[in-house]
Amino acid sequence: MTAMRRLMLCLGLVVFSAQGAFAAQGEILARPYGTVPGMSLGYWEYLPLGYDDAPTETFPLVVFLHGTGEVGNGSATALEKVMNLNAPPRLIRNGRDFPFVLIAPQRFNAFISVAEIDAIIEYAKVHYRVDPSRIYLTGISAGAIQTWAYAAVHYNKLAAILPIAGNASSLNLCPAAASGLPVWAFHGTADGQVSQWGSINPVNQMNTTCSPAANPAALLTLYPGVGHDSWGRTFDGSAGHDVYAWLLGHSL
Question: What molecular function terms (GO) are annotated for this protein (predicted)?
């Protein structure tokens, strides 16, 4: 990256092209609230290595939704709270490269609505070179609850979901099951904030109650004795799961 580009990024300038925001490939970049026309929330943006060099190529999109501990107004300062999580934004800042576009929005409360999630995905499809057949949604805690909620309605827009420490016990997920939406849920069995049954029940519903049952079968990984933070070990791979390869292995 040239010195001039680094200067521009440090100053927080937002430059647009016909394809959207100025590409900062291989880096995590803050897009504070009010600086990106068409986006109602501040967010973290990551464009994969090679994005600038392949102007006709499309890329998978991962949207990451935070929990209640990371709420904020989307300012540059507030967005730093998202970096407290051992999750994709911080992993990227610490040097990990991913082969997908990442958008990690911040909201003043963590229960981002289905309509807001849909607006983010539709914005990304227009302003970034996103492969519409490879859009993935993941979130933790409240963000996982809303991941489930979005998938229950817009399952036809998603290639796979990865909800961690969420709760979808009250949702009708049979349409998503019938669509073949791949699901992999994670939860700690000692979670004192969101019961493990918030993940067990929806997975059981999709696999045993729905007719037709989910195909592929919805997956559930429970971590014995683990509390609410079941996401760190999931996202960084220390629990032995490559969730990114799993996500990217699915497409519409």
Answer: hydrolase activity
